[in-house]
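Exercise 7. Predict the joint structure of the components listed below.
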Amino acid sequence: MKCARAFEWVSPKAWFHRFGCLSLLLSLFLAGCATGPNANPADPFEPMNRSIYKFNDALDQNILKPVATTYRDFTPSLIQRGVTNFFANLEDIWSIVNNVLQLKAEAAAESLMRVSVNTVMGFCGILDIATEMRIERHTEDFGQTLGYWGVGPGPYIVLPVLGPSTLRDTVALAADTKGDAVTHIDDVAVRNTLWGVRAVDYRAGYLKSDTLLDEVALDKYSFIRDGYLQRRHNLIYDGNPPEEDQGDDSSAAPTPEKQ
Amino acid sequence: MNRSSLNRWISGLLGLALTFAMLSAFAADEAADAMIQRLSTDVLDSIKKDNAIKTGDLSRVIALVDSKIMPNVNFQRMTAASVGPSWRQATPEQQKRLQEEYKILLVRTYAGALAQVSDQVVVVKPLRASPEDKELLVRTEVRGRGDPIQLDYRLEKTPDQGAGWKIYNLNILGVWLVETYRTQFAQEINAKGIDGLIITLTERNKANAKKG
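Solution:
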């Protein structure tokens, strides 16, 4: 019954209600739960998460990071910029939808304008003309939309290959994948190439912060976790979370129930 | 008393009054957002002028931090909050060592970030505060190439000290420094105690310094 303890703060009933069998399945395949006085209530699956983190880290060190480093060092920076812009433009399309879902009219309109301008004048998004025109970017994904409507983050989850997430963001991933333009490309080779290039481009963007992380974090796993949770909380409130609960997402989560 | 000497006396008095007025305006505490704007611009300008900092010369960065930033930071409060409840059990000597090592760790991070400064400007967002506030949040945005970077500060009122405000926490992209380090430090303290944390920090700083 140790697992039940870790679940208490997010209220099992509320979670089962929200996510039905998914959280049941998750709790079933859990090998172990974090317990003891030092267990982080936001991270009840810490032992499992840590082993997935280790796996991801090894994968990164051996494959993704070397590839991204080569890409950064041997590709003209103009091309790199173009690639980043191209994928950012695709991301902006999904942001339009999520801004609408969050009833953010101005942000939705600006995102729509960005996509139109960049797709037409910026050669399918390779040039970021919209930023030059000072049309602001409002990146929103479906996890943020759920958060906006009051769905709490739930437990922290490290996904294999994909990395840091929460239960909410993992559920939202299904919608995000549907909303990703690359998913809808029928040609398998083209689609996979685009996924690959995007992964490398994304990783290349984090090469510098990587070194920094090695220097400043005493424990990289918890540093990334705390950073991720705070960052997501901040994004849901568009950079302006309520004063009282800076840094943790507990206000958005259901209140603990006494048993 | 003849007329010209009276005139001189009056203009002298006027000058004195003006000097006093200026002095007292100078001594009055600055608004928190004005202070952050001045500080940010000052630091950015110093970096843009200084090639040694851009190439990552740590001693120059430390000099910059010590002269411009540290007088405006309550670093003891920052360290105490990061260490958490164990801070009160630490001896004054341990507290001093913790502050020293923590500062080196952070300045190093800062040096890395500063080395990447090129054409950025800092924009301070409108302040939502009342004059009675003893603590407040100043939100800024670093604008340069790419998406703007959110950089917020928490300040406490320190009447008659420095510019009248001191920073005690900051966040980058929504991630608060103190809250993030609280977990990092707590893990070390739980496993090895306060001395253990000091040793870990010292070793980390030495390892970082070796990387150049």
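Discussion. Confidence is low (pLDDT under 50) at residues 1-18, 245-259 of chain A.
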